[in-house]
Amino acid sequence: MACSSAAPKFAVRRQPAVLVAPAAPTPRELKRLSDFDEQDGVRVQVPNLYFYRRNKSMGSKDPVRVIQEALAKALVPYYPFAGRLREQDGCRLAVDCTGEGVLFVEADAEVGLEHFDDPLLPPFPCLEELIFDVPGSSAILNTPLLLFQVTRLTCGGFILAVRLNHTMADAQGLMQFLGAVAELARGAQAPSVLPVWKRELLEGLNQQQPALVHGKLHEVSGSNTSTKASSIMIPSDTAALRLRSFFFGAREIAAIQAQLPPHLQKRATNFDTIAGWIWKFRTMALSPDPDEVMVLAVVVNARGRNTTAVGIPIGYYGNAFLVPVAMSTARELCTNPLSYAVELVKKAKNQVDMEYMRLTANLIVLRRGQSPRIAAGMYSLSDTTRARFEDLDFGWGKPVYGGPAEAVGVPSIPWVGSFLLASKNADGEDGMVVPMYLPGPAMDRLVEEMNKVLGLSADVTLHQPHVSLSRGQRYE
C-alpha cells in the first residue's frame, strides 16, 4: 500500500536482498504438495508484520543478525522452505528441495514505534517499504518461498516482515515455523516441535466423486443476483469504501451474548457470537433484496477437530484449513433473532470432520484450474488469533502487534472478507478486532447497531474509538 497523504511518511534504507540458506546440508528431493495446498485462493503471497519495542535486557544485540542466524538454523529441519516450487503432471505443485534459501532484507527506518497509530492495526503506512517486493520474487513458481525483512527503528525497536508463499503453509503452519526461528533465536538447541511433511494425508481418494456436500456453495457462487442487490452490495467505486475496525472485548461479547437464549450462551464460542452478530447486522446495514442469498464462509482449522481418521500429526505445517459456509436469505437473516445466525455459524463449523475433508479434497481436484466466482452476498471471516502470532518472541518480548499486514485477505475486493485480529483497547483489555470495508451509509448503520449493543450514542463511540471502534479510515 502506498503512503497516503494522511499517513506518516518515513525513509527506509535497505541493503541488497540476500539468500539465507540452511545452516547445514539438507536432502535434495522433490516433495509434492497436498490437494489442500492447491485450494482456491492459496496461490498467493501473504505478508505478515510484527512490531517490537526496544528491550534493554538484549543490550547491543542486533535483531537483524539474531533473526538471520536463527532462520538459517531453522531451515535445516524445515528445508523444503529453502527450495523452489515447480509444476508437474499438469498443474500439480511440488517443492524442489534445492537448499537455495529464502530472501532476507536488512533495513533501517527513520521512524520510531511512536509514529504509528495506537493501537497498531492494519492497514499500515508505507507497507511497501516495510516489506520490499524484491524484483522477480513475487511469482508463485521458481522463486524463494519466504521473504524476510527486518527493519530497525530509531526508538531501538524493530519490525519483522514475513511474506509467505501460501501454498506451503497456512497461518498455523507459518506460526509453527516462525516459532521455531524464535526458539532458536532465544538460544534453544532445536525446535520444540519438529516439522512433519506427510502432505499425502490430505488428498482426495476418489477424485471423480461429486462433492455433494459443497453443491449449494457451487450453486450460490454461480447464481445471478438481482440488479437492486448487486448495486447496493458491490460498490462500483472501491475508493468510496470506508474502513472501520470493530473491537470485541469481554464487555462487547457479553452484551451480544445477552441477546441469546441461555442454552446458546453456554454453547456459543466467542467466534460464533462475533461471526453471527457481524453477519446479521452487516446484512441489515447493506439492505439487500430480501430474497438475496447471503453466504458466510468461515475459515476452520482442521487440526484438533474430528479428523483422527486422517491423523493430522503434531508438527504438520501444510495447509489444513477448510471453508464451510452458512447460508440464509437476507429476509430470514434480518427478521429472525440473533440466535438464528449464531446457530447457522455453529452448524457450518461442526460440518468439518473426516468425510467433509475428503469431499473438500475431491472438490479441489474437480475445480483445479477454475477461477473462483464471487457472488454479491458472499462474505468471509478468518480468525487469525488462533495462530497466536502475538506470542512470537525472538528475545525482545512479545510483539506490540503481530499478524496480517493487510486489513483484509483480498485487498482487490476488500468488502468480501475480514480477519479477526488480536488487539487491546485503550484500557489494555484483551480482545479481538474485525476490520471491515463498507459503503459509507452502510457503515454508518453498522456503527449505530454496535452503539445500541453498548448503550452508547454515536457521538460517544466516535470520540472514544477504543470502546467499540478501534480506528476509522476512508479510502480517497
TrEMBL record:
Keyword flag Transferase: yes
Keyword field contains Secreted: no
Gene3D superfamilies: Chloramphenicol acetyltransferase-like domain
Cross-referenced InterPro entries: CAT-like_dom_sf, Plant_acyltransferase
Keywords: Transferase
GO MF annotations, alphabetized: acyltransferase activity, transferring groups other than amino-acyl groups
PANTHER family: ACYL TRANSFERASE 4, OS05G0315700 PROTEIN
Family: Belongs to the plant acyltransferase family.
Protein name: Benzyl alcohol O-benzoyltransferase
